[in-house]
Specification:
heterodimer; A: alpha/beta; B: 164 residues; alpha/beta; 5 helices
């Protein structure tokens, strides 16, 4: 089963899709099979229990969910991207 | 406001220079022009200001700062990107750390109406943000045109692959 990663933002449209698409690309380049879904914050409550990881570009109360949260702003800015990806890859293992 | 050509899923790119002294003033000036150009619905400006408060969009890039203000897709009348270069920096809160402020001159207003079709151009945007040439351009341009041209070039690199 591929691991499931949720990438939330305010509407689940622009920011989350930017970050999710970048994450898809870098994980694919590393040969890692994962299911990555851009979602809005409201959907997190119902989806978090079936996911393995939240990669968040904006803090918005994700800490209340029982799965790990990693800051993914590097997916948008490129600053510290390598370290961010390493952290995500480690969390998936 | 200067406009470029467009197709259904490829964003029309607009650029303008502004001389606003606050973020709200910038949002009102750019937002009203966007309403006038029929890029967004009439109630866009208040939605944009509210949305930025709730979900700030300032980004600290490597050596530059930008913001990407946007709202829900329901306000979009077409797909567009508006590049505004303000004379002096205005305050934006950081997307990843809203307690921190960033001084931002270049704001890239995103108007998305169907992310599933526009995910390719969204991914090109993050590619551009990570590019040092883009940071240099942001820091040296008083004119929005070179930034808009660069954006257009970056987006067109994948045009035809993902734009059905």
């Amino acid at each position: 089963m591929p691991k499931k990663i949720l990438v939330p933002c305010g509407s689940g449209v622009a920011t989350s899709n930017m970050a999710a698409e970048k994450l898809r690309k870098v994980l694919r380049d590393r040969g890692i099979d994962a299911q990555i879904q851009a979602v809005d914050f409201r959907s997190l409550a119902s989806l978090a229990s079936q996911a393995d990881l939240i990669v968040s570009v904006a803090p918005h109360g994700e800490a209340k969910y029982p799965i790990r949260v990693i800051n993914g702003i590097a997916l948008l800015t490129g600053v510290g991207l390598e370290q961010c990806i390493n952290e995500i890859v480690d969390a998936l293992h | 406001m200067k406009a470029d050509d467009s197709s259904v899923n490829f964003p029309q790119i607009y650029s303008l220079r502004t001389s606003c002294s606050t973020t709200d003033e910038l949002f009102r000036e750019v937002g009203l022009l966007m309403v006038g150009e029929e890029i967004v619905a009439k109630d866009f400006v208040s939605a944009l200001i509210k949305r930025e408060e709730q979900f700030p969009t300032g980004l600290q890039l490597d050596g530059a700062t930008v913001a990407m203000p946007h709202v829900d897709a329901r306000f979009s009348l077409k797909t567009a990107i508006v590049v505004a270069v303000n004379d002096a920096p205005v305050d934006f809160r950081r997307m990843d750390d809203p307690e921190k402020m960033l001084a931002v001159r270049v704001a890239i207003f995103l108007v998305i109406n169907d992310a599933t079709k526009q995910v390719v151009f969204l991914s090109r945007l993050s590619h551009m943000f990570a590019d040092q040439n883009f940071s240099r351009l942001v820091n040296t341009s008083d004119d929005p045109e070179p930034v808009a041209q660069y954006l257009k070039t970056v987006l067109e690199e994948e045009r035809g692959e993902g734009y059905a």
